[in-house]
Specification:
Rossmann fold, 9 strands, 20% strand, two-stranded antiparallel ribbon, transferase, alpha/beta, single chain, 7-stranded mixed sheet
Length: 273
Amino acid sequence: MNQIAEALHVQPDLKVDAQYGPMLNGRWVPAPRYVLRRDRVLAASLDLPPGRVLEIGCGSGALLREFAQRGHLCYGVETSEEARQLAGEMLEAFPTAQIVSAIDADTPADFDLVIACEVLEHIHEDAEALAQWVQCLRPGGRLILSVPAHMQMWGVRDVWAGHVRRYSRAGLVGLATSCGLKVQRIECYGFPLVNCTNVIANWSVRDKGLAGGAASQRQATAESGIDRSVHLKHFGLQTSLLGRLVMKTGCLAQRAFLSTNWGEGFIVIAERP
């Protein structure tokens, strides 16, 4: 069977769901918070013609694959070796896509779009990191950045994932501006659904230490984007008729509250002048 699949260039583990996007059966599935964030990231880039896209911390490569499907030339940066392997499988059908371990002297600096979802909160020197990402953009290029919101919402899951902070709206504006970006808008996404799932997420990892059984914050950072041990157990519920209805309603409902501070995460859309 595997030989037949290979001959037809079919990946047996890869599934592309019309509602949730690509996934790797039994290994990586989209968590509810990812689905809500994905809805806004894809919307924030819908007007962009095919160009060059860089994703910092691409994890499994699921989001980057969707940009490749839109015709973009994709480049992913990921420190985790396991994640790079997953991303390679996700992007197998797009041979021009590249996945590397770090930004270096050979990394192009003319990207039309740079994406960094749930990465900056793991980095102690966040201003230095953001400034480096901005340098990868061409003048007029766009940055889409997502981070967890509100330090008062700090919980067990933040520790599990290797976070070092959450952000305020004003703090994000100041950080982006200091790195030479022109902020177009900031969305506070997820309300009301993600506020409920965040409670469940904190409860589900309360006895699990760090992501992927990591021994340090740095290792937890590498594991948090691909550790789906909890979500795999409950993904059948998410793909049930009721689960799909709840997630669809959540994606639509959050759009009415993007200008508030009621959600659980921020998405920054900015431009390099």
